[in-house]
Structures
1.
Amino acid sequence: MKKLFLLVLCFFLVAGSAQAGAGGNSAKQENPRQAGKSSIYFYDVEVPNGNGYGRLVINTDKHTFTFIGQDFTPNQHVYLKTETDSGFELTAKGKSTKSGNLHISGTWEGTLPGVGVVFAYYYYPPAYGFVLENMGGYVANIKIAYSTDNGATWKLTDKIGSISLFEQYWMNIDSVGDYIPEGALVKMKMIVVGGADVTTDEIYTHVSTSPPGYCWPFYDSHGPTWNASLDLFNIQCKPYLDSDYWFIWGE
């Protein structure tokens, strides 16, 4: 299957999600600040525990918006949500960079946030399992790191697989020895035989039923034994396990 690179920055309108409550917070302002008498409005946005903040700028004349933030958890999906006179609206989606910066921009078609509340929260894509394609010069195993308390603590499963150079290994989370409940947060850890282990930056939600589909984050390993690395190319999904139809999550 052709591998697709994920865009670090993206914008589109999205529907609500059952996992949307993981890590949300709001920054209240009685009156949105304006630049003089112009049509530009500013909203400060924060995430709990100091884990990311930024500013949303809306230009009502040009019908555009820009959000620039920093100190976010690296390589995570972030949603922006605003409260308007008509209720809550999910506005935009972006992904933080490896350094924790976040930049989202797009067209603003709605009304201004009437109450002056803007939310930012993390969203973790689904994972039924993981795929590791070994492009490094070593033998690798897989462990699953999982959390049932929204990331406060993490546990590790026993290692599985023995993945040689150029081998592609598919594993399902439900097949590991530990019971990992649906809805738990999960990450993949690559055990490098004779070298340094690597854990994915990206966090996922364990989803073992459909919808949204059966999804496998696909990683390639690179580098020598003493400096191994993991690269995420895409999240490959299909609507049900026996289906021949594949789609890329988020496309």
2.
Amino acid sequence: MELYQSIYENTKHMTVPLDDTQKANVIQLIPRLDQKGQDLLFFLIRMYHNQQSQDITFQLPYTATADKSDSTSKDIEFDLNVFPTQLQHMVFLFTRMHYDYISYESIRK
């Protein structure tokens, strides 16, 4: 919860959506995140949605789609363009931070 609150506070002043370069960076980094990072990213998206809508639902937020082609697959696809501006920046900030963290950890070991 502290992670969410920190990222939320650091992005609440953002009023301009991500530019194409930033979006491309997010799209490039998400598949490189470890499972924990991908789980945390979904958590951030879900928390933001629940906080903004004041409605807890079991539906995927922001017109997300789940890959059902493989019963073991947990792939969920989102369209960044559908996200509110602040959430776009939260996703950008988190993916950069987590990718930098796992890169540092792999070098450290």
3.
Amino acid sequence: MNSAGAAFRAMVEERGARLRELPFAKIKELANEPVENVVVGPRKGTIGTIVLALPSGGIQVVVQGFLKHRFMPGKSVAMNGFYKYPDETIAPMTSEEFWDFD
């Protein structure tokens, strides 16, 4: 991956790490946050946060980023996600679970 792509992936991972530190109630409030526009070197992208309620009372949190390719059509995708519960416990998402968000 080129340096812009690596930097973008690091941005998405850092946002996921920050969200893990927030209290459950605060993360629930982020469900309708607007997408963030970012620029990494010469490339433009977006980073959005998806917060979905679970039947168990927990939430699924996915940070999803799209970075435009520089010279050809298309976008690179970076994702980070986890589950958080009212008792503040956290569980990871599996790689396969991200397929629902691309």
4.
Amino acid sequence: MTISGGGMQLGLNTPAGVYEWDVVRTYEYANGTSQQVQSPFSVGTYTWDGQTLTLIDSTGLASMTGVLAGGVLTVGHQGQEYEFLKLVQLPQ
């Protein structure tokens, strides 16, 4: 299994102050076939000060912080870094 992508929504298709973070997993099988499965990774509330994004997972998973630099939002979680391209305006 590899994580081949994902997406985060902040107040677009979610209420203001709420985020949804999904991951896409790719399962590759010995017979040469593969399957992609999209599933929720984290859901909760966020704060955004214009440069720093703070995510608070509703299940108690963790509090995560992301930083926007050059159109890329980088979020760290348990020693891993996840990068998201900023495709639309982040909420104010």
